[in-house]
Design a protein that fits this description.
Order of helices and strands: HHHHEEHHHH
Oligomer: single chain
Shape: rod-shaped
Structural class: mainly alpha
Number of helices: 8
Strand content: under 5%
Length: 168
């Protein structure tokens, strides 16, 4: 996964990732698990305004529970009066949507000309377009002499039709 794809998968941008990684003293590895963790951290900081360190700790706890809804206490005091309920099923669906967008829409184009292996020729292009090539293939199966005879017969037919039209 490229850095841009990773940023899209987390729902943020590359600048936020670099700054957050520096503040948390955490290395960003472009893996699926890391993208899921950074995406949840970004969601908690953006949606709830949690400080980065608390959001990182909450994301670690939430992802270790393997998809179950979790209630995480975020207050530093002993009262435990403030807590956050994280709906992990909803977060997973949002993350997978971002990941799909990152991998499908944000995939960099290959540089240079297309390889010759992709160019299958005009006949294959026509067949993919929906043109029936049966008559063309049948004509190519004939010898050049047979093709010339068929051409002469067709030309004679066209001449006869023109004479009939002019006579009427």
């Amino acid at each position: 996964m490229t850095a841009h794809q990773f940023a899209v998968a987390t729902g943020g941008d590359a600048k936020w990732l670099l700054n957050s990684a520096a503040l948390l003293r955490r290395r960003v590895s472009h893996t699926l698990e890391d993208a899921r963790w950074w995406g949840l951290v970004r969601q908690l900081t953006d949606s709830l305004g949690l400080p980065l360190q608390r959001a990182a700790a909450a994301a670690t706890i939430a992802l270790n529970l393997k998809g179950q809804p979790c209630k995480i206490s975020i207050s530093p005091g002993r009262s435990g009066s403030a807590s956050v309920l994280i709906d992990m099923v909803r977060y997973q669906s949002i993350f997978l949507l971002n990941l799909s967008r990152a991998l499908v829409q944000e995939t960099p184009r290959r540089r240079g000309r297309p390889s010759a292996a992709r160019d299958r020729g005009a006949a294959d292009s026509a067949a993919r377009y929906g043109i029936d090539l049966g008559l063309v293939r049948a004509a190519l199966d004939r010898t050049p002499a047979e093709r010339l005879e068929l051409l002469e017969a067709n030309a004679e037919f066209v001449r006869a039709m023109r004479k009939g039209r002019n006579a009427a």
